[in-house]
Each structure stands twice: as structure tokens, then as C-alpha cells.
């Protein structure tokens, strides 16, 4: 077997015959706290993610009340605000839940940004060629998907919570805002909503399973939890898409 | 086979480095990837050039020394194979092959395709051992181990510490390596006394070395020449949580 090699058009420069310098590495500083560690931040991601998913499940069930009629939906909205009355003032429970949710969103974002920066630092020189070998589209859009969801959230609150960009305005009944918001003439709003909900679904598909993995539950139940995460994500997507689509095609009036 | 190689050349740790193109003619399809590089290097030496530095040792896929990113995939696209066990028959004649070193801040390039993986050694030093009085080997059946645990521990223990997981991870995380080392001890009776302190110490050392965090993308396990499963990371996370 003979093999000949032609010199390439460009050749590497020759180094002088000095022994290769041993790279000197400073011993890294140990993280001082649980929250400072990468695993600790992942736990923050998982726990805050779980809080937000629990909220989404309740939110989805609440939305589905629109199929029982406007009154049922409005009653539910009123009930949320008068929970535990007269022991506590109007809107106490809801406000507390809202504070908890905002805290979860902020902590989730803090952990994500901090981990992303850490990941960026861990690979200062990028590959010329890099091919993904893992399957799954959802995995690759977690960070930008999260940003998209935040942008959607701002619009969503302005539309259906504060009524700023809603045809019915703030001083209206929740069901009226919802039905007017997804009116066929505002099809682009519904389209934006559909895209965002699908993004949430993809985010959860990886996020939920990732949560099981981070909390160490996936160790023995890998085969069960991965499809379970996908199933719950799919249920949430269908549950959130049903009311706006039903309104748009006129099933709910 | 005639090939065009795009190889990362870097004179030393301080050099910026660049991709350099080489043409390689009459490569036998039976050559391993490293043999193909050997042939190129012999030619470079005859021409008075600097041969391409790359790590290698056993060349039978068990030592963990070799490793390079071939066409964007750690150890090349063949599944569960180290670079030394990858053969040229898997490439097409006339192909252009891009070869890069592992890319991670904790793995600084020493020269060309050689990176310093001492960070892995320091993770092991932090807790990847059991503190028992050594003596002569005990009888194999003196400590009973469940078959499932023995199998899973063995699977984890097949990790050769090549660093492909870090190279493939979009976050430059060493979680699969660290998890494999933690799991193969945590599943066995001998590993129990230091189980939690080990997980904590090794994860903290992994962070201190500057590796990124795990986002469960599964890129690591997809390129791992030993197919270490992703659930080892879940086991590591569980022990780390218990230790805190």
C-alpha cells in the first residue's frame, strides 16, 4: 500500500524546536453557594418552570369555561377575585398568586441568562463546522423561544388583562374582551396567538422533560417521563388553542 | 481515495490558530482516520513542515486519548466510535473533511488538535474515588450487587474520558463525563459511604473549571463513543440535590 500526499496550496508554518509550553491554569474559584452553581441554577429553572406550568394548567382550564357560556367565564373571573372573601379583602389571593408568578418569571429568566452567559464563556472559540447529532427541534429554540414567549406575554397582558389593545377596553367583562379579541376581523391577533402558543408548547416539551431530569426524577423513569412531558405540552397547546379558534370560526359567540 | 483536509493549525497555546488546507492523495479506504493523518504527517516531515499534532495512544478505541471534531461531529459521524476506530471507507472519494480540536475554555489547545484535558483529572481528584483500605482483591461475590445495578454501573464505567461530550455540548458542559464517573460509583455498595459528598465535590469542581451547565440537549450522548446514557446526568442531579 503506497500513499502519496501532495502539499496543499497552503501549509502550516513551522514552529521552532522548542518544547511546547505547558499551559498554566489557575485553579478555579469554587462556587460559594448552591445558587451560584450551575446545577443550583438549573434547579431554580426547574422549580420556577413547574410553578409556571401549574399556572398554565389552571389558566387553560379557566379559558375552557368560555365553552360553558359567557356567564360561566365571567363568574369564574369574579370568583378568582373574591376568593376567601370576606376573610381577606377583594383580590388578595389573586394578587398573591400574581406576585408569585412574576417572581417565578424573573427568577426563571435570571437563571436562564446566567446559564447562557456561562455556556458562552465555556466556548470562546466557535467551531468552523458544527453539526447537531441530537434529535429534537424543541431543544434548539429554548433560549430564543423564551424571548418570544416574553414578548407575547407583554402583548397578551395588554390585550386581555389590561385591555389597552383590545377593542372592548379595560372596563369590560372578561368574556367580552376575549370574544372581541379573537374576532375574525382580528385574524392576525389569533394567528400571533397560535404561533405563540405553539412556541410555548415546544418550550414545554423540552422544558418539562428537562425539569424531570434536573430534579433527578428521570433517573429511573426516563421512558415514561419523556413522553409524559410531550403529552402534557400537547394537551396545553390544544387547550389554549381551542377557545380562540372556536371564537374565530364562530362556534363561541 | 483523494481527499481535501481543512485542518486547524495552532502553533501553541498563545497562537491565534487558523484553518489550513491540505490535499491527500491515494488514501486507502482501509486506513483508520489517524493512519490517514499519519501518512499526511510523514509527507509534511519530509517536506520540512511541522506535522499536525494530535493525541492518540491505544488506537483500539479504549484509551480515550484520541478525539477531534470531524465535519462538525466529535469523533466523526459514525455512531459510538472513537476517531481511531473510524475508517476512511466511511468517506467519499474527493470529499473535503474539516478537522478541528475540541472547543471549550477548560480544554485549552496545546497545539493543533491537541487539547489539555487536565480539567477532567481535577474533577476525578475532587471525588471520583472510594476511600477504603486497599488489600488483595475480595472474592467477586462477597458483596452482592443487583444485576441491574451492576449493568448500569458498568455502562457508566465504560466512559474513557475522551471529552467528546464537552466538545459536542452547545454549552461546553462536562455533565455527561462527571455523571458517568459519579454514577458508576454511586450504584455500587463500595461507593455508598461517600456518595453525596462525592457528587457535591465533583459537580463543584466541574463548575470551577469553567464548564457550562447542562440543558439536556442530548448532544453529548449522541456522540459518546461509549454511548453513556443521559439518565446518568439525572442520577448525578439527584445525588447533588440530596447533598445540598
Automatic annotation (TrEMBL), chain A:
CDD domains in UniProt: SQR_TypeB_2_TM
One cellular-component annotation, GO: membrane
Descriptive protein name: Succinate dehydrogenase / fumarate reductase cytochrome b subunit
Ranges annotated as spanning the membrane: 43-62, 93-116, 137-158, 187-208, 229-252
Superkingdom: Bacteria
Signal sequence extent: none
Gene3D superfamilies per record: Fumarate reductase/succinate dehydrogenase, transmembrane subunit
Organism: Nonomuraea soli
Region Disordered, annotated ranges: 1-35
Alphabetical keyword list: Membrane, Transmembrane, Transmembrane helix
Record flagged with keyword Transmembrane helix: yes
Classification lineage: Bacteria, Bacillati, Actinomycetota, Actinomycetes, Streptosporangiales
TrEMBL record, chain B:
UniProt-recorded Gene Ontology molecular function terms: 2 iron, 2 sulfur cluster binding; electron transfer activity; metal ion binding; succinate dehydrogenase (quinone) activity
Ranges of residues in domain 4Fe-4S ferredoxin-type: 150-179
InterPro entries on file: 2Fe-2S_ferredoxin-like_sf, 2Fe2S_fd_BS, 4Fe4S_Fe-S-bd, 4Fe4S_Fe_S_CS, Beta-grasp_dom_sf, Helical_ferredxn, SDH/FRD_Iron-Sulfur, Succ_DH/fum_Rdtase_N
EC number in record: 1.3.5.1, 1.3.5.4
GO biological process: aerobic respiration; respiratory electron transport chain
Keywords, comma-separated and alphabetical: Iron, Iron-sulfur, Metal-binding, Oxidoreductase
Coiled coil: none
PROSITE patterns found in the cross-reference section: 2FE2S_FER_1 (PS00197), 4FE4S_FER_1 (PS00198), 4FE4S_FER_2 (PS51379)
Swiss-Prot/TrEMBL cofactor(s): [3Fe-4S] cluster; [2Fe-2S] cluster
Superkingdom in the source lineage: Bacteria
Recorded family membership: Belongs to the succinate dehydrogenase/fumarate reductase iron-sulfur protein family.
Protein name: Succinate dehydrogenase / fumarate reductase iron-sulfur subunit
Amino acid at each position: 500500500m503506497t500513499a502519496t500526499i501532495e502539499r496543499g496550496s497552503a501549509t502550516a508554518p513551522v514552529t521552532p524546536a522548542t518544547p511546547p509550553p505547558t499551559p498554566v491554569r489557575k485553579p478555579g474559584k469554587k462556587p460559594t453557594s448552591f445558587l451560584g452553581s450551575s446545577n443550583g441554577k438549573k434547579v431554580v429553572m426547574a422549580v420556577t418552570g413547574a410553578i409556571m406550568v401549574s399556572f398554565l394548567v389552571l389558566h387553560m382550564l379557566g379559558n375552557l369555561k368560555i365553552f360553558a357560556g359567557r356567564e360561566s367565564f365571567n363568574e369564574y373571573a369574579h370568583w378568582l377575585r373574591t376568593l376567601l372573601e370576606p376573610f381577606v379583602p377583594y383580590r388578595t389571593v389573586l394578587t398573591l398568586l400574581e406576585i408569585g408568578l412574576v417572581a417565578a418569571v424573573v427568577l426563571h429568566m435570571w437563571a436562564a441568562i446566567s446559564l447562557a452567559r456561562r455556556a458562552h464563556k465555556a466556548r470562546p472559540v466557535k467551531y468552523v463546522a458544527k453539526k447537531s447529532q441530537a434529535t429534537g427541534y424543541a431543544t434548539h429554540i429554548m433560549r430564543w423561544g423564551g424571548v418570544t414567549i416574553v414578548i407575547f406575554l407583554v402583548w397578551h397582558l395588554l390585550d386581555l388583562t389590561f385591555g389597552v389593545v383590545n377593542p372592548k377596553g379595560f372596563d369590560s367583562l372578561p368574556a367580552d374582551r376575549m370574544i372581541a379579541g379573537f374576532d375574525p376581523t382580528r385574524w392576525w391577533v389569533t394567528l400571533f396567538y397560535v404561533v405563540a402558543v405553539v412556541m410555548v408548547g415546544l418550550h414545554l416539551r423540552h422544558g418539562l422533560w428537562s425539569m424531570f431530569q434536573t430534579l433527578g426524577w428521570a433517573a429511573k423513569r426516563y421512558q415514561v417521563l419523556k413522553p409524559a412531558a410531550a403529552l402534557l405540552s400537547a394537551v396545553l397547546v390544544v387547550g389554549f388553542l381551542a377557545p380562540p379558534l372556536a371564537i374565530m370560526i364562530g362556534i363561541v359567540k | 481515495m483523494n481527499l481535501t483536509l481543512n485542518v486547524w493549525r495552532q502553533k501553541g497555546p498563545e497562537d491565534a490558530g487558523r484553518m489550513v488546507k491540505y490535499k491527500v492523495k491515494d488514501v486507502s479506504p482501509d486506513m483508520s482516520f489517524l493512519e490517514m493523518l499519519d501518512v499526511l504527517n510523514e509527507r509534511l516531515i519530509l517536506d520540512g513542515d511541522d506535522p499536525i499534532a494530535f493525541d492518540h495512544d491505544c488506537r483500539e478505541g479504549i484509551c480515550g486519548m484520541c478525539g477531534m471534531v470531524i465535519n462538525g461531529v466529535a469523533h466523526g459521524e459514525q455512531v459510538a466510535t472513537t476517531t481511531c476506530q473510524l475508517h476512511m471507507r466511511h468517506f467519499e472519494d474527493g470529499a473535503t473533511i474539516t478537522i478541528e480540536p475540541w472547543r471549550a475554555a477548560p480544554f485549552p489547545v496545546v497545539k493543533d488538535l491537541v487539547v489539555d484535558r487536565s480539567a477532567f483529572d481535577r474533577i476525578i481528584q475532587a471525588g471520583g474515588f472510594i476511600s477504603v483500605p486497599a488489600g488483595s482483591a475480595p472474592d467477586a461475590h462477597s458483596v452482592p450487587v443487583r444485576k441491574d445495578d451492576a449493568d448500569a454501573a458498568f455502562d457508566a464505567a465504560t466512559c474513557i474520558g475522551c471529552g467528546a461530550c464537552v466538545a459536542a455540548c452547545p454549552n461546553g458542559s462536562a455533565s455527561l463525563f462527571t455523571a458517568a464517573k459519579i454514577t458508576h460509583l454511586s450504584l455500587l455498595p463500595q461507593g455508598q459511604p461517600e456518595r453525596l459528598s462525592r457528587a457535591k465535590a465533583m459537580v463543584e469542581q466541574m463548575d470551577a473549571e469553567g464548564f457550562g451547565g447542562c440543558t439536556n440537549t442530548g448532544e453529548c450522548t449522541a456522540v459518546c463513543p461509549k454511548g453513556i446514557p443521559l439518565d446518568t446526568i439525572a442520577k448525578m442531579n439527584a445525588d447533588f440535590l440530596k447533598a445540598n
